[in-house]
Amino acid sequence: MKQVYCDNGSTSFPKTPGLGEAVGRHIDLNGFNISRGGYGKAYSLEAEIIEAREQICRLLGWDDPKGVVFTPGATMGLNMVLKGVLKKGDHVITTSMEHNAVVRPLTQLEEQGVEWSEAPCDVKGQLEAEAVEGLIRENTKLVLTTHGSNVCGTLIPLEEIGKLCRKHGVMFAADAAQTAGSAVIDMKRYGLDAVVFPGHKGLMGPQGVGGMVLSDRIAREMDPVFSGGTGSASDKEEMPSFLPDKFQPGTLNIPGIIGLKHSLGFIDAEGLEGIMEKKRYITDMFLQDVCNMKGVKLAGLPEADGRCAVVSLVFLDMDNAEAAYLLESEYGIMTRCGLHCAPHAHKTLGTFPEGTVRFSFGYFNTPDEIRYVVDALKDIAAR
Ligand SMILES: Cc1ncc(COP(=O)(O)O)c(C=O)c1O
Fold it and tell me: What is the pTM of this model?
């Protein structure tokens, strides 16, 4: 049976051409450590890691590679920002579209006396920047928002929110889990103090690696959640105060970073604009067909503007889980159904607790695959 992968919001597949070979070559021929060895191979490997930081800066509109801190993924980065910045009595603003990678750390922090407000998004997941401004208080320390919804793809207007944060002197962070490598992110222009990203979704790298890019301001305000050896300032019992070491104790996932570097090279060669255009094209194709399809209802925006390549459908005459099962068992179409770790987003979209069937497209999906998925949906929805 034909196989069509439509779960790129969970992780990209396939990965960039040659990724496995690049990681394997590194492990087999160059699997040394960095910052912990006084020999040439350790230094040249360190130079490769610095190159990866530079690639990330170019992609995310930042100019200081030291501000790039590698983490095991977006979840760890979000925990590090939230738990590093917010102390008892501080106030934080998020949106009503956040993933549990934000909701759960904040639920823990609320128990420790952190105050938290959610700016309400509309039923399509859209947010007016002014809704954030209205929530800013004397003790507001941070605004953290998802950039693209992992449920319905709607984008949050980072640039407008960034302007308001600057006006009020509040720090601003974005969860770019669904948009790094899939949308323009310009940290400086958007006034962002932190962008948190996974390496395995839009960046098409391996799982287990991601990172955050930090401004000097937020880096100063953040306490390190994890501490340990950094190979630097080893005479001190406290973590170094400089970047990236302040937030990067322990041996890094170097094979993961080497893989991410390979994938970033691919993105650079293909061009972000071209990647975005291709995803936009297939998302638009899909939306045009599903918007008026009998038996399904779209959650979120009906057009390709203002969104990323994540589309959620509700099946009207059939359980969503049954539809997802039929899609895979009869047509080889891989999707994800349920709440996608984002119950607050589903409450906003009116799809809680049933959830949706999510189709999330990647750079390697083709128009032929989209036509195949649409035909399968027509068959299933007509039953
Ligand atoms: C919006 C959003 N934030 C955070 C995450 C967590 O990313 P990771 O699983 O790579 O840590 C995800 C993953 O699906 C996501 O979609």
Answer: 0.97
Look at residues 243, 270, 297 and tell me which one is the last residue of a structural domain.
270
Q: Which atom of ligand 1 has the smallest separation from the CA of 77?
A: 11
Beta bridge partner(s), residue 214: 194
Residue 341 is encoded by which pair of tokens? 């770790």
Candidates 211, 195, 206, 185; CA nearest to 262 is 206
Binding site membership of 74 for ligand 1 (Cβ less than 6 Å): yes
3-state SS, residue 373? helix
**Cα-based angle 290, 176, 298 (whole degrees, multiple of 5):** 15
Cα–Cα distance, 354 to 346 (Å, whole number): 9
Total number of domains constituting the chain: 2
Does residue 177 have its Cβ closer than 6 Å to ligand 1? yes
| Cα distance between residue 256 and residue 153, in whole Å | 27
Residues 275-298: tens digit of each pLDDT: 999 999 999 999 999 999 999 999
Probe residue for ligand 1, chosen from 7, 11, 75 as the CB with the greatest number of ligand atoms within 8 Å: 75
User: Is 99 touching ligand 1 by the criterion CB < 6 Å?
Assistant: yes
My answer on whether 217 and 349 are in the same domain is no
